[in-house]
């Protein structure tokens, strides 16, 4: 039977104050981050997506518990989402913990969904991978065995580090420029010149994932309407060792509203998949044990991601504004760590969250529409001014503390 991994990215960032630095705040965090906005967005998405989607998956997981083939789902949950869930809707954490152990797996990632994997010095990145893994273990009582870097950003060094910190596998995008004629339906590994002790590289099936994530409610799509029956038939027609589906959890009820039928699709999919004797759901830790069929060579200047048409790092580092702020964040690391103050360090780490730079991308056409959809700024340049003001003030606060 062909294993199908159904994986979801579950993330909410800590949003910056768009009205400038709050000089009256009692905490350093409060100077820059807007918890009123965080709560508004979190509660809204919880109502549209987190509760209805999780309720459906949980119901199906319990219904199929103990059967030869059962529903298995995988969640890549950011530590910033966990912090906000504990604050605004702790019952969501309880819902995840009510899944049968045989039906759920968790995927590791960088702490606060950060861009530390692109730092020149990878020490912070290693620490963040360990921090997030500990948070998942404390929150969900399981230790992730497979990880993905933020937004599936990947190159050889990230793969090497994932193995060194103890992961059996690492997820990224099955980009054609690296795969060539090969299929994303197999496991690969790092080239020998990178490491002799690499782990398995698991690749997302971009087309099948985007059929749900992006095209589900598109009126122009010639496969409209997409039913669970049709989609399960597509999965059954696949060849290889696995099919990896990896999408934003907010696909269900937020990106595609309930009225499109997306939640019905999600609820019906497990039943339709089980009608095919050649399919089964799998945990990511299970497919990470497959023997690799070859090497996936993504050198640093050919970085991979799941974002935009380019599927590279340009969604975050594609214009001078993004590059300047990214360099400033890196420059602040040594000063922040000289303070040896966990509260200051935590604020700095929240600045590394990928969303901030994503919101000031200046691409146009379809990619630009995606960036604008996710951004809470009116314009990328407003975002740049806002982030710059916060970072400059943060630098002053850090230097002031160093002088004491």
Structure description:
With 404 residues, the protein is α/β, with parallel strands linked by helices. The protein folds into two domains: 2-302, 7-stranded beta/alpha barrel; 314-403. The chain is built from 17 helices and nine strands. It has helices spanning 28-32, 35-63, 79-88, 90-97, 123-140, 156-164, 176-179, 206-213, 228-236, 262-274, 284-287, 314-317, 320-339, 342-351, 354-358, 365-374, 380-403, and strands at 2-10, 73-77, 104-106, 146-148, 169-173, 188-189, 200-204, 243-248, 279-281. Strands 1, 2, 3, 8 and 9 form a five-stranded parallel beta sheet that branches. A four-stranded mixed beta sheet has the order 4-5-7-6. Helix 2 (35-63) runs parallel beside helix 10 and helix 9 crosses helix 10 (262-274). The chain is globular. The model has no long low-confidence stretch (mean pLDDT 95).
């Amino acid at each position: 039977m062909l294993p199908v991994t159904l994986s979801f990215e579950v993330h909410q960032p800590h949003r910056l104050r768009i009205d400038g630095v709050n000089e009256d705040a009692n905490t350093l965090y409060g100077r820059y981050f807007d918890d009123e906005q965080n709560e508004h967005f979190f509660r809204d998405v919880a109502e549209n997506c987190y509760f209805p989607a999780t309720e459906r998956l949980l119901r199906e997981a319990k219904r199929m518990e103990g059967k030869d083939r059962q529903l298995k789902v995988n969640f890549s949950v950011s530590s910033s989402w966990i912090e906000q869930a504990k604050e605004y809707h702790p019952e969501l954490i309880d819902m995840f913990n009510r899944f049968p152990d045989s039906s759920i797996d968790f995927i590791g990632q960088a702490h606060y969904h950060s861009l530390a994997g692109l730092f020149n010095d990878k020490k912070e990145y290693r620490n963040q991978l360990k921090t997030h893994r500990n948070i998942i273990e404390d929150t969900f009582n399981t230790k992730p065995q497979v990880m993905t870097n933020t937004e599936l950003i990947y190159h050889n060094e990230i793969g090497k580090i994932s193995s060194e910190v103890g992961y059996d596998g690492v997820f990224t995008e099955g980009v054609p420029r690296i795969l060539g004629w090969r299929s994303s339906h197999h496991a690969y590994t790092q080239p020998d010149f990178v490491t002799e002790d690499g782990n398995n590289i698991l690749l997302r099936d971009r087309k099948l994932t985007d059929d749900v994530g992006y095209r589900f409610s598109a009126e122009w799509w010639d496969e409209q309407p997409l039913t669970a029956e049709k989609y399960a038939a597509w999965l059954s027609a696949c060849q290889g060792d696995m099919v990896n589906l990896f999408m934003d959890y907010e696909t269900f009820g937020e990106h595609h509203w309930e009225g499109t039928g997306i939640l019905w699709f999600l609820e019906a999919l497990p039943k339709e998949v089980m009608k095919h004797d050649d399919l089964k759901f799998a945990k990511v830790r299970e497919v990470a044990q497959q023997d690799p069929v070859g090497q996936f060579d993504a050198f640093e200047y050919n970085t991979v991601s799941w974002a935009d048409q380019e599927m590279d790092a340009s969604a975050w580092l594609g214009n001078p504004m993004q590059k300047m702020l990214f360099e400033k964040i890196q420059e602040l690391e040594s000063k922040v760590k000289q303070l040896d103050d966990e509260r200051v360090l935590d604020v700095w780490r929240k600045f590394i969250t990928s969303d901030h730079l994503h919101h000031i991308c200046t691409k146009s056409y379809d990619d630009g529409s995606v960036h604008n959809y996710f951004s809470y700024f009116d314009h990328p340049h407003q975002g740049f001014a806002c982030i710059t003001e916060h970072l400059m003030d943060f630098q002053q606060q850090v230097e002031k503390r160093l002088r004491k």
